[in-house]
C-alpha cells in the first residue's frame, strides 16, 4: 500500500501552506529524510523531507496553496497504483495529464485507515497531542504503517537549507511574486502602523558593559558573547522587574506573560525574521549567547522552525553593526514594545565639571500606548539603562 | 573486593549462613559427596557433616516435603532441586503446602524454606533438563520467586531468601555458574523485591532476567553503536515485582522490551508487559516487545537448541523495532 504524503502542520495556527516546487519527480526514488518539496508558510519557507522511502509514485498537487492534512503525493513501490485524489477547492493546482496511468481510480483504496475515523497513534503521541491541543489528523505519522509517534507531535518536520535566489541582471526591472514571508512582513507591519505608539530615547554609558562582554569572551572564547546577548539578558531582567511591560493588548483583554520571551530581529536572506529566546529571564549570558548563535545561524540558513519564532513578548532590533546612530523601530505586533539599538560611539560628555570621553549607546523604545503608559515605558527604560551601565545590577 | 564465580557466590551464602546459624542446613540429591550435580555444594560435607548436608532419596516430592516440615519446626532449610524440570515433581509440596500453610494457619505457622534450583539451555541437555519454568511459580500466591543473574546478586539475594520467613523459589541459571564478578567483602543482603538498573539509557528499556540480562547488555552495546541508548533493568525478584522501578524506567524511555529465556507465550514477560501497558500507557511510544524462546520443547541438537532460545541479536532486533529502525 502506497504511503500518502500529507501537508504537515509546521506550527500551531498553520492552516495551509504553499507548495513552491517539488525537488523530486514522479517515478524517482526517494529515501526517508530526503528533501521532497519546498513549502512556503506565512512564517518560513522550508524544504520538507520525505517521511517514507520508495518511489515517488504520484505528485497530486504540483504547486499552489493547500490546506494542512491534504494528500499531496504518494510514495510506494515501483508500479504500484494509487488512489485518485480530489483536487483542492481553491486555488486549483495545475491540471493533471489525463493520460497518467497512475491516476486510475481505485475506490477501495480511498478508504485509508485515516479516513475511517481511527488514527494510528502511540499512547504517548496521543497524550502529547492532547496536552498541546494538536489535532492528530493534521500530523503525518512516521512509525510502522504510518503510526504517529511522539516525535511526530514534537517536531512536525525539520526544515532544510534553501538555494539562494538568482541575482537579476543590471538594467532590467524584474518582477518576482511575493513570497509568503514577504506578504507576512507587509501585512503585520501595516497592521503595526495602525497602533498608537510613543517612543522614548535614552543613551547609556557602555564602559562597563563593554568590559563585561570583553572579559566574558576571554573567559569563554568558544562562546562569542555579544552586546546583543547582554541586551537580551538585560531586557529580560528588566521585563521581569516590570511585568506591566511584558503584556499584549487584545480587543477585550490585556494579556500578561509570565516569562520574558525576547525576540531578536535578524536580517535573513529572505527577509526580516525574529527568532525568539524563550524564558530569557532564566538564562545566563552564556546560555543566551549559545541560543542566539544557534537561532541566528539557522535564520540565515532558512532552517528556523515554527516554534523558534512563536511566542515572543518583546523584541530587540540592533542596527549598531551598520553604524546607525539611532532609529525608531516599528512595533512587532502583537507585542507591546520593541527596542531599537544604535551603534556605541565615543562621545564627549560633561561629568563632574570635566569633559570626559565615554562610549555611549543610544536606544529608542517603541511602545503600544493601548497597553503601556509613557511613565511605565520610561521606568522600564531607566532600568535597562541602569543595568547596562552597572551590569552587576542585572545579575 | 573479592572476585567470585556465580557458583562460588551461591556456596559462600550457604556456607556463611550455616557457620553463623545452626538452624540453617541443606538437603538434596547428591549434594554431599558429589557436591551437587553442578558442584555448588562441593566441599560442604567436609566442613558441616552429614547432619547439615543431607543427601536425599531420588524423590523431589519427599525432599521438598521434608524441608517444609523442618521449616515449620523452626529450621531454615535450603532444598536443592537438581533441575528446574524436576520442580514439577515437587510442585504439590511447593504449591499446595509451602505456599498455603502460613495463610491457612492464620499465621500460626511460617515456612522459611528455600527451594534452590537451576535450569537453562546452552549445553544441549535436551527437552527435560533445561526448561525455564519460573512462570509456573510466580503465578502462585504465597511464594516468593528470585532469579539472580550475577555473582553479587545471587549471594546477596540467597542470603535474604534464607532469612525470609516465607517460602522462596530460588532460580539459578546453568550457564551462569562459571561467570565471575566482584562481590562485597562481607555478604550484603539484597532486599527481595528490588530491581537493579544495570545500565542507564534514554531510548528503550530492556527488562531482562537470568542469562538474558547478559545478552541484553551485549545488545545494548550494539544498539549504542547504532545511536540507540538502551537502559537494561533486571527485576532480580520476579515475585514480588519491583513495578515502581520498571514503570519509572519506561516512563523515561517510552519504549520497552522484555526478555527471558523461557518461552514467550504466557511467560513472565507477558505479566511485565501488562504492568507496563497499564501503568505507563500514556508514556508508551511503541508496543512492548517480548523476547523469549520459541514455543517448542528444547531440541537436543545444538544448532536447533540455539535456534529455539533467544540471544543478544534477538534482543537487538526487538530494540530496533521499538524505535522503528
Short structural description:
The complex is a heterodimer of chains A (395) and B (325). By secondary structure, chain A is of the alpha+beta class. Chain A has 9 helices and 18 strands.
Protein topology:
The complex is a heterodimer of chains A (395) and B (325).
Chain A: E1 3-6, E2 16-22, E3 29-30, E4 35-40, E5 45-49, E6 54-59, E7 64-67, E8 71-76, H1 107-110, H2 123-132, H3 150-154, H4 180-193, E9 197-205, H5 207-219, H6 227-241, E10 247-249, E11 254-256, E12 262-264, E13 266-268, E14 271-273, E15 276-277, H7 285-300, H8 306-309, E16 314-318, E17 337-351, E18 354-368, H9 374-389
Parallel strand pairs in A: 12-16, 16-17
Antiparallel strand pairs in A: 1-8, 2-4, 2-7, 3-6, 4-5, 6-8, 9-18, 10-11, 12-15, 13-14, 17-18
Helix pairs in contact in A: 6-7, 6-9
Chain B: E1 3-5, H1 6-20, E2 24-28, H2 44-48, E3 53-55, H3 60-72, E4 76-81, H4 87-98, H5 101-104, E5 114-119, H6 134-138, E6 144-147, H7 151-162, E7 168-173, E8 180-182, E9 196-199, E10 204-208, H8 211-225, E11 230-234, E12 237-239, H9 243-253, E13 256-263, H10 268-279, E14 289-293, H11 302-308, H12 312-322
Parallel strand pairs in B: 2-3, 2-4, 4-5, 5-7, 6-7, 10-11, 10-13, 13-14
Antiparallel strand pairs in B: 1-8, 6-12, 9-11
Helix pairs in contact in B: 1-7, 3-4, 8-12, 9-10
Overview of this protein structure:
- The complex is a heterodimer of chains A (395) and B (325).
- Chain A is of the alpha+beta class and 395 residues long.
- Chain A has 2 domains: 3-154, RNA polymerase II/Efflux pump adaptor protein, barrel-sandwich hybrid domain (OB fold (Dihydrolipoamide Acetyltransferase, E2P), Beta Barrel), CATH 2.40.50.100; 181-394, Chloramphenicol Acetyltransferase (2-Layer Sandwich), CATH 3.30.559.10.
- Helices cover 25% and strands 26% of the residues of chain A.
- A 6-stranded mixed beta sheet of chain A has the order 9-18-17-16-12-15.
- In chain A, strand 17 (337-351) and strand 18 (354-368) form a beta hairpin.
- In chain A, helix 6 (227-241) crosses helix 7 and helix 6 packs across helix 9.
- Chain A is elongated.
- Mean pLDDT of chain A is 83; it is low at 86-115 and 157-165.
- The longest helix of chain B has 15 residues, at 6-20.
- The radius of gyration of chain B is 19 Å and the shape is globular.
- Chain B has 2 domains: 3-182, Rossmann fold (3-Layer(aba) Sandwich), CATH 3.40.50; 196-322, Rossmann fold, CATH 3.40.50.920.
- The mean pLDDT of chain B is 97.
- Chain B has 12 helices and 14 strands.
- In chain B, helix 7 (151-162) links the parallel strand 6 and strand 7.
- Chain B is of the alpha/beta class and 325 residues long.
- In chain B, helix 8 (211-225) crosses helix 12 (312-322) and helix 9 (243-253) crosses helix 10.
- Classes of the chains: A alpha+beta (395), B alpha/beta (325).
- The interface between A and B is small, with 11 and 8 residues.
Amino acid at each position: 500500500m502506497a504511503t500518502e504524503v500529507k501537508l504537515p502542520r509546521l506550527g500551531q495556527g498553520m492552516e495551509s501552506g504553499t507548495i513552491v516546487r517539488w525537488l523530486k519527480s514522479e517515478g524517482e526514488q526517494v529515501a526517508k529524510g530526503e528533501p521532497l518539496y519546498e513549502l512556503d508558510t506565512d512564517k518560513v519557507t522550508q524544504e520538507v523531507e520525505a517521511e517514507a522511502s520508495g518511489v515517488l509514485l504520484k505528485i497530486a498537487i504540483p504547486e499552489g496553496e493547500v490546506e494542512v492534512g491534504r494528500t499531496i503525493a504518494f510514495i510506494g513501490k515501483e508500479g504500484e497504483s494509487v488512489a485518485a485524489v480530489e483536487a483542492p477547492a481553491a486555488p486549483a493546482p495545475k491540471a493533471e495529464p489525463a493520460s497518467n496511468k497512475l491516476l486510475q481510480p481505485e475506490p477501495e483504496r480511498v478508504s485509508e485507515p485515516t479516513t475511517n475515523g481511527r488514527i494510528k497513534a502511540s499512547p504517548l503521541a496521543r497524550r502529547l497531542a492532547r496536552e498541546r491541543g494538536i489535532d492528530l489528523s493534521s500530523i503525518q505519522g512516521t512509525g510502522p504503517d504510518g503510526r504517529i509517534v511522539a516525535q511526530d507531535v514534537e517536531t512536525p518536520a525539520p526544515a532544510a537549507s534553501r538555494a539562494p535566489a538568482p541575482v537579476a541582471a543590471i538594467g532590467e526591472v524584474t518582477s518576482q511574486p511575493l513570497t509568503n514571508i514577504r506578504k507576512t512582513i507587509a501585512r503585520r507591519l501595516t497592521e503595526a502602523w495602525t497602533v498608537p505608539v510613543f517612543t522614548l530615547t535614552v543613551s547609556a554609558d557602555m564602559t562597563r558593559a563593554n568590559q563585561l562582554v570583553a572579559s566574558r569572551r576571554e573567559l569563554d572564547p568558544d562562546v562569542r558573547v555579544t552586546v546583543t546577548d547582554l541586551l537580551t539578558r538585560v531586557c529580560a531582567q528588566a521585563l521581569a522587574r516590570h511585568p506591566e511591560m511584558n503584556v499584549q493588548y487584545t480587543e477585550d483583554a490585556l494579556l500578561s506573560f509570565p516569562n520574558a520571551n525576547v525576540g531578536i530581529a535578524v536580517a535573513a536572506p529572505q527577509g526580516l525574521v525574529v527568532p525568539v529566546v524563550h524564558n530569557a529571564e532564566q538564562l545566563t549570558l552564556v546560555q543566551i549567547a549559545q541560543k542566539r548563535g544557534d537561532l541566528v545561524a539557522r535564520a540565515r540558513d532558512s532552517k528556523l522552525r515554527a516554534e523558534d519564532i512563536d511566542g515572543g513578548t518583546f523584541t530587540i532590533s540592533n542596527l549598531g553593526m551598520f553604524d546607525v546612530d539611532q532609529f525608531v523601530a516599528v512595533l512587532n505586533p502583537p507585542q507591546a514594545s520593541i527596542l531599537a539599538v544604535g551603534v556605541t560611539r565615543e562621545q564627549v560628555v560633561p561629568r563632574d565639571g570635566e569633559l570626559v570621553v565615554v562610549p555611549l549607546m543610544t536606544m529608542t523604545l517603541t511602545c503600544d500606548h493601548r497597553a503601556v503608559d509613557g511613565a511605565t515605558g520610561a521606568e522600564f527604560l531607566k532600568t535597562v539603562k541602569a543595568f547596562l551601565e552597572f551590569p552587576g545590577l542585572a545579575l | 573486593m573479592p572476585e567470585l564465580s556465580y557458583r562460588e557466590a551461591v556456596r559462600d551464602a550457604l556456607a556463611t549462613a550455616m557457620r553463623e546459624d545452626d538452624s540453617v542446613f541443606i538437603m538434596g540429591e547428591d549434594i554431599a559427596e558429589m557436591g551437587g550435580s553442578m558442584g555448588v555444594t562441593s566441599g560442604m560435607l567436609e566442613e558441616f557433616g552429614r547432619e547439615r548436608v543431607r543427601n536425599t532419596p531420588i524423590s523431589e516430592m519427599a525432599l521438598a516435603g521434608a524441608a517444609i516440615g523442618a521449616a515449620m519446626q523452626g529450621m531454615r532449610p535450603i532444598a536443592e532441586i537438581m533441575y528446574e524440570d524436576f520442580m514439577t515433581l515437587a510442585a504439590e509440596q511447593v504449591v499446595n503446602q509451602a505456599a498455603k500453610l502460613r495463610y491457612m494457619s492464620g499465621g500460626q505457622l511460617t515456612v522459611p524454606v528455600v527451594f534452590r534450583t537451576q535450569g537453562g539451555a546452552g549445553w544441549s541437555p535436551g527437552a527435560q533438563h533445561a526448561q525455564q519454568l519460573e512462570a509456573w511459580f510466580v503465578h502462585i500466591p504465597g511464594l516468593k520467586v528470585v532469579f539472580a543473574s550475577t555473582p553479587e546478586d545471587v549471594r546477596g539475594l540467597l542470603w535474604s531468601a534464607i532469612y525470609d520467613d516465607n517460602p522462596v523459589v530460588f532460580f539459578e541459571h546453568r550457564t551462569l555458574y562459571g561467570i565471575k564478578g566482584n562481590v562485597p567483602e562481607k555478604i550484603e543482603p539484597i532486599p527481595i523485591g528490588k530491581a537493579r538498573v544495570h545500565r542507564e539509557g534514554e531510548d528503550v528499556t530492556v527488562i531482562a532476567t537470568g542469562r538474558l540480562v547478559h545478552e541484553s547488555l551485549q545488545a545494548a552495546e550494539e544498539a549504542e553503536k547504532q545511536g540507540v541508548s538502551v537502559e537494561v533493568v533486571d527485576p532480580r525478584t520476579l515475585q514480588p515485582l519491583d513495578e515502581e522501578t520498571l514503570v519509572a524506567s519506561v516512563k523515561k524511555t517510552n519504549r520497552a522490551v522484555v526478555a527471558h529465556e523461557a518461552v514467550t507465550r504466557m511467560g513472565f514477560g507477558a505479566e511485565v508487559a501488562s504492568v507496563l501497558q497499564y501503568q505507563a500507557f500514556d508514556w508508551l511510544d511503541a508496543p512492548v516487545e517480548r523476547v523469549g524462546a520459541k514455543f517448542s520443547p528444547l531440541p537436543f541438537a545444538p544448532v536447533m537448541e540455539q535456534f529455539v532460545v533467544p540471544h543478544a541479536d534477538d534482543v537487538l532486533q526487538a530494540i530496533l523495532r521499538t524505535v522503528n529502525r
